[in-house]
Amino acid sequence: MSAVPFEALVRRRLADEVGRFTKEAPTTVALLYPSPYGAGMSSLGFQRVYRAIFDMPGFACERIFLDDEAEQDLAQQTRPHSYESLRPLDEFPIVAVSVAYELEIAGLVRMLDAANIPARRTQRDERHPFILAGGPLTFSNPLPLAGIVDAIIVGESEELVEPVLRIIESESGDRARLLARLAEVPHVFVPEHHGATLPIVAKVDNALLPAWSPIRTPHAVLSNMFLIETERGCSRTCTYCVMRRSTNGGMRLVSMDQILATIPEDATRVGLVGAAVSDHPRITNIVNALADRGAEVGLSSLRPDRLNDDFVAALKRGGYKTLTTAMDGPSDRMRESLERRARVKHLIRAAELAKAHKMDRLKLYLMVGLPGETDADIDECIAFSTELSRIVPLSLGIAPFCAKRNTPLDGKPFAGIKVVQDRLERLRRGLRGRVDVRSTSAKWAWVEYVLAQGSEAEGLAVVDAVREGGRFADYKRAFASLPVATMAKPRRSLAIAQI
Question: What pLDDT is recorded for position 246?
Fold first, then answer.
C-alpha cells in the first residue's frame, strides 16, 4: 500500500468516527491491534484501554492497525503508522498491544518486522520501544508472547494500565531496572524475571463495570455500533471455555438502569457484550427498552435454553433477522460431555421461535473434533440438522475444537487435520442442499491449537514462520523443528503427529 492511499484511507475513516478523543500530552503511547481497523474498532477491550490511557494525566495514545491487505497476506504489510498523526510505529516510546487470540501473534510479528523493531525481545534494548501486551489471550495462555513482548498484563487491565505505563515512562532509560520494577507489580508477567510462571489473572473492582466503547464508526465490522457490557464472566461450567464460572468469580452483572443510562441517546445501533449476555435476568427488558428508543440491538451471545417467546420477540423488535445461538457439539452425547445445558428440545424450540417471529433463518455454532467424538456423533448432527431445516432455513458455523489452557479440557489432543476434514466433509455431504455449512480451516485450527497449548518456544517459531512467508507449510516446519524439551508440557510432543 503506497503512502498516499493509506493517508486518504485514514482521513476518510477518521472523518467518519464519532467519539474519538484528542489530547496533547507529554507521553504518547502506540495502541496497536494486530488485525485490521474494522476488527480493532469492534473490540470492546481495545476501546476500553484506549479510554483508560486518555483518562491518565500526562498520557495519550494513537491507534495502529494491521493493514487491510495484510489480513490475507502478511507480506502486504507496509511500515505501520498511527491513524491520529501518521507517526511511524518505531518512533513511539511505548507500544501497547491487545491480542485477542493465538493467530493474531503473526500479525504482531509482521508489524514489528515492517517497523524495523526486533520481534524477539532479547534483541531489543533502550533504543527500541517497550512492548507491553494484554487482551483476551492472557486469560488462557499468553506464554507464546513471552519471547516477543517485554511484559504482559494478565487478565482485566483497567486498573493496571496507569501504574504500569507510569513505571515504563519513569524508567525508560534503564531497561533492567524497568523490568525489575514491573516484575513486582501483581498480575504483570515479565518473562525475563518470571520464566514460564504466570501470575493470577487480574480482576478489576466491579465499580469499574461496565466497559463501553467511546468510538463508533461505519468502518468497523460492527458498523456504527455502541458496545457495552451487560455482564462480565459467566456462571456456567462449560468444560471448553476460558470464561467459565471459576474465572474471576463467575458472572458479574451490570444493572439495567446503569446500562441504559450509559448508552448515548443518539446511538442507533447497540451491541450488548459479554460471555453470557442472554443470562442477564433483565435481558428482555433491556432489549425492549432499546427497541423503544428506535435502536437496533445485537447480542454477543445467545444461549438456546434462555430463548422464549418474549425474548425472541424483543430481538425481532431490535432488528434481528437471523436467530443465532450455540449447538456446541454435534450430538447430545458430546454436548453432555461439554457440560452444556443446551438440549434437543431447546434447539427445536429455537427453530420454532425463529419461524414464529419470521426470522430469515436459524444459525447454530458448533465444534467438531471433540474428545471422544465419532462418526456416529456426526451422523446424529446430520439427522437432527435435517429435522431443524424442515422448520426454518438453517446454517451451521463450525470450528474445529482447540483445547485451551485454564479449562478442564486443557491438554486434550487435537483430533487431527485429516480427521477434522473428513468429518466436515461427512457433514457437508449429508446436509448438501438442505443446510448451509461453513467451517474454519482445520489446518489453521491446528496452528491455533499448538499455540494455545504452547510456550515461549512456539511463539518464537511464529517469528520464523512469518519470515518464511506465513503459509501453513511454514508453520508446520517451524513447529516440527522445536525439540520436545522446549515445550511447556511433555504431552504436546503429540502435536506434530496429529497433523
Answer: 83
Residues in Cβ contact with 266 at an 8 Å cutoff, skipping those fewer than 6 apart: none
Distance (Å, rounded) from C-alpha 11 to C-alpha 8?
5
- Round to whole Å and give the CA distance between 320 and 314: 9
Confidence of residue 490 (pLDDT cuts 50, 70, 90): very low
One-letter amino acid of 299: L
Residues 6+ apart with CB under 8 A from 72: none
* Sheet arrangement for strand 151-153: 59-65, 27-33, 94-98, 130-134, 151-153, 188-189
- DSSP symbol at 201: P
**What's the DSSP call for residue 203?**
-
pLDDT of 32 reads 98
For 59, phi then psi, to 5°, come to -130, 150
Residue 4: which pLDDT band, with cuts at 50, 70 and 90? low
Q: How many CB atoms lie within 10 A of CB 237?
A: 15
Amino acid at 213: S
Smallest Cα–Cα separation from 144: which of 458, 410, 446?
Answer: 458
Question: Do the beta carbons of residue 76 and residue 68 sit within 8 Å?
Answer: no
pLDDT for residue 384 = 98
**437, β-bridge pairs:** 396
CA-based angle 497:481:191, to the nearest 5? 105
Residue 413, C-alpha cell as written in the block? 489432543
Helix, strand and coil in the chain, % to nearest 5: 40, 15, 40
CA–CA separation, 304 and 301 (whole Å): 10
**Residue entry with cell 451422523:** 379
Residue the block writes with cell 461496565: 210
> Which residues pair with residue 326 across a beta bridge?
365
Q: Which residues pair with 88 in a beta bridge?
A: 81
> Which parts of 265-390 fold into alpha helices (H)?
283-292, 309-317, 332-337, 344-356, 375-389
Contact present, 475 and 444 (Cβ < 8 Å): no
Pairing type for strands 130-134 and 151-153 reads parallel
**Strand 322-328 relative to strand 296-299: parallel, antiparallel, unpaired?**
unpaired
Three-class SS state of 270: strand
The fraction of the chain above a pLDDT of 70, given in percent, is: 96
Task: Give the C-alpha separation, 53 to 163, whole Å.
Answer: 11
- Residues 124-148 pLDDT 10s: 999 999 999 999 999 999 999 999 9
Task: Give tens-digit pLDDT for 438-454.
Answer: 999 999 999 999 999 99
pLDDT in tens, 312-366: 999 999 999 999 999 999 999 999 999 988 899 999 999 999 999 999 999 999 9
What is the residue whose three cell numbers read 524477539?
120
Cβ atoms 398, 373 nearer than 8 A: no
